[in-house]
Amino acid sequence: MWSPYYFTRRCGLSYRKSSNLTKKTTCKVSCSQVKLEQDLDDEACELVRGVELNLGDGTDSIQAYLFKAVKNNNGTGVLLLSDIYGFEDSSTRDFAYRVACNGYNVLVPDLFRGNPWTKHRSKSEFEDWIARQSPERIAKDINTSAQWMVNEFIAAKISKKLGIIGFCFGGGKLLETLAQDQGAYFGIGACFYGTRMNPSLASNVKVPILFVSGDNDPLCPVDILQDLEKQIGRGSKVVVFEGRGHGFAHRPESAEEDGDAEVAFSIMRNWLHDELVVNKE
Q1: Which residue of 11, 85, 160, 243 is most buried, as measured by CB atoms within 10 A?
Q2: What are the Cα distances from residue 169, in Å, to 138, 176, 185, 220?
């Protein structure tokens, strides 16, 4: 029987955002921002380097941002697919930065070719905007990003598998990406409140996915996650946060959401660590 993990307790940790990151910067972060494993060195997340990249050639090239752990780099690549606000959004970059702080190399590609959705636009324009985001073009750009990571980390024999994280729109694309990859390069996924997900793709997914969502999120119904977890199997897990709506894990808007965002981050961190680091050898 399907039994999602429900969280009702509130964690006292604060989701403190780092300052917005800019081009080619090396930033220090207090390790109190990230609740590390007890057996990790508290000084291990001292440095993360950020650099802008152009991936691909000519008109097919896309922009991306790489967050690279400096002091504690474990040699593992993680592809992060953003929500509709794009790869330059501060909430997305802050989250990617925190993942990198735990030792990873996190690549955040521009899925919208410089035309992300913006909060000041009228909701009446959304469907027209999303219709102009060609699924074929986005799939190609994700593939370009994944291939860059394969060449950088797998072909160089630095890492055996890649990880992938997706938020909202990016969560739906995560499912499509893993269905196409079928375990060739990606070893694990973490999907935060994915939207427009196609359950029929689940049979082609060959790696476990962690699904994180709130039970008050009409954009990511829990019953769809239930269906995906059952179909994918392979140790996939659904974690549901009681009373939470869309975007709480990377865009917390209250002290209560801050606590749940910290719990969600910790669960995801352990999920990636167990598959990509512990099982790396």
Answers
A1: 85
A2: 11, 11, 22, 10
